[in-house]
Amino acid sequence: MEKLQTAATVLIVPGLRDHVAEHWQTLLQARLAKVRAVPPLTTDTLSCTARVEAIERELAAIDGPVILVAHSAGVLMVVHWAARYQRPIKGALLAAPPDLQSDWPQGYPSPDSLRAHGWAPLPGGPLPFPSLLAASSNDHLASPAAVAGMAAQWGSELVELGAVGHLNPASGYGPWPHAEALIRQLDY
Q1: What are the phi and psi torsion angles at 114 (to 5°)?
Q2: Which residues are within 8 A (CB) of 175 and not within 5 positions of it... i.e. 6 or more apart?
Q3: Sheet holding 157-160: strands in order across?
Q4: Which distant-in-sequence residues (6+ apart) come within 8 Å of 39 by Cβ?
Q5: pLDDT tens across the length of the chain (188 residues)
């Protein structure tokens, strides 16, 4: 299989579930020629600060342009990282961000727990790089209105994906071919 060539290095920023073999980000990583991923944390796994520092460590190891590809809580990590650090980023694909103001199903950390670990409040204002915010119409972690509000606040272009759940294996994803097209759009 020929790998997708990009001018920029793609940095994969997973959500709180970290590495999942059948997740679209893991499958995407295998398809890209220039790619790195933020490794799973072994301690302080709910700490927003620890997650942001992990992103910064990976970025420090990359020379040249970077495209960020974040999913779920990884999107929130990127927003916090952008508020704390200065580094040119070519663009970001931000997929299925959770809404810290809503109640989540059992099996997820509670929004209150995440707030206690530094996730809220989210930094305000536009991101300092172009971004595409991909939203599902039936995501159990964020309503379409909440995601549209995030896109407006961050200056992101909203990409409506339809009914794709949380865009994870539990929602039937697996491969997400649309991600490659969105990365190409950012890798101009």
Answers
A1: -65, -40
A2: 24, 27
A3: 35-37, 9-13, 66-71, 91-95, 131-135, 157-160
A4: 54, 58
A5: 688 889 999 999 999 875 678 888 999 999 999 999 999 999 999 999 999 999 999 999 999 999 999 999 999 999 999 999 999 999 999 999 999 988 888 888 887 888 899 999 999 899 999 999 999 999 999 999 999 999 999 999 999 999 999 988 878 777 787 898 999 999 87
Q: Nearest to residue 70, comparing CAs of 108, 107, 98, 49? A: 98
- Class of residue 120 by CB neighbours under 10 A (exposed 0-12, middle 13-18, buried 19+): middle
Domains in the chain with CATH codes: 9-176 (3.40.50.1820)
- In whole angstroms, give the CA distance from residue 140 to residue 118: 22
